[in-house]
Amino acid sequence: MTDTTTRPTTGEDRAGEAGKKLQDRRGTGTPPESRGRTTIADSVVEKIAGMATREVPGIHSLGAGMARTIGAVRDRVPGGGGRSGVTRGVKVEVGERQAAVDLDVVVEYGVSIVDVAGDVRSNVISAVERMTGLEVVEVNIAVDDVHLPDEEDETGGTEGRVT
After folding, report:
1. Going by C-beta distance under 8 Å and a sequence separation of 6 or more, which residues neighbour residue 135?
2. Helix (H) or strand (E) holding 66
3. Are 80 and 150 in contact (CB under 8 A)?
4. Cα angle at 106 between 105 and 110, to 5 degrees?
5. pLDDT in tens, the chain (163 residues)
6. 89 φ/ψ angles, rounded to the nearest 5 degrees
7. CB atoms within 10 A of CB 49
8. Distance CA 136, CA 86 (A)
9. Which residues pair with 158 in a beta bridge?
10. What does the alpha-carbon distance between residue 19 and residue 48 come to, in Å, rounded to a whole number?
């Protein structure tokens, strides 16, 4: 008759097993940049798209109607919070490898809306793809208003006035 004894596994044994599993996953032949996962938040892509849109000549501002007016006032109030001015008028959907961008813009009077929209698309796609590595599948642009040269800004032109 043979006696067999089993001993309970210890923390050291488990650590050794885990180390072997990690060693198997590491793959010494794989490049360092592919060892892990990068997640990019929607808000990051919104900021990039918002900045890229504002860089295009002919864009006066982003955002639609009353939201733009309220946002402009909120930005001037200390601690106003809410959505930052950079992302107002920008919505994105971000997947693992792709992103879609929706923009609400106000253009300057006299510019070709078709040309400005094309320039915005090019600039947004270039900036988002370069900075994030995501493929931008679409950039939808809604032109909500035209800013006339003699119009006051969204805040009603009361900046600096005491009432």
Report:
1. 97, 98, 99, 129
2. helix 65-76
3. no
4. 130
5. 555 545 455 555 555 555 555 555 556 788 887 788 888 999 999 999 999 999 999 999 999 876 555 656 666 666 655 556 889 999 999 999 999 999 999 999 999 999 999 999 999 999 999 999 999 999 999 999 999 998 776 544 433 333 3
6. 85, 5
7. 29
8. 19
9. none
10. 40
